[in-house]
Amino acid sequence: MEILKIVLLVLLAITSLLLTLLILLHKGRGGGMSDMFGGGMTSSLGSSGVAEKNLNRFTVALAVSWGLVIVALGLIQSFAGEA
């Protein structure tokens, strides 16, 4: 059970970092982080609608897996009596 908990913690760290990076990659709808890193200049170049849709799908899939990992960690801790 301890090995599963360690694997889930590592998976949580990886998905958290990837989710943060993917959210920052999204096109800004106003003055936010993406404009701070030059998002205003790249929006005039015109990004592909397909690329934006794929980025959205990947972000949602990663967010769902992140949530499932958190639920799994919570269940492991509650059944192990560590809560």
Task: Map the helices and strands.
Elements: H1 2-25, H2 33-36, H3 39-45, H4 49-80
What would your notes on this structure say?
The chain is mainly alpha-helical and 83 residues long. Helix content is 81%, strand content 0%. The protein contains four helices and no strands. Helix 1 packs antiparallel against helix 4 (49-80).
Task: Provide a quick synopsis of the model.
The chain has 83 residues and is mostly helical.
Q: pLDDT under 50 segments (min length 5)?
A: none
Helix/strand class: mainly alpha
As a percent range, the share of strand residues is under 5%
Q: Provide the residue-averaged pLDDT.
A: 83
Major sheet, described briefly? none
> What's the helical proportion of residues?
over 70%
Distance between the termini: 15 Å
Choose one word for the global shape: elongated
Number of helices: 4
Computed Rg: 17 Å
**Helix and strand sequence:** HHHH
Count of extended strands: 0
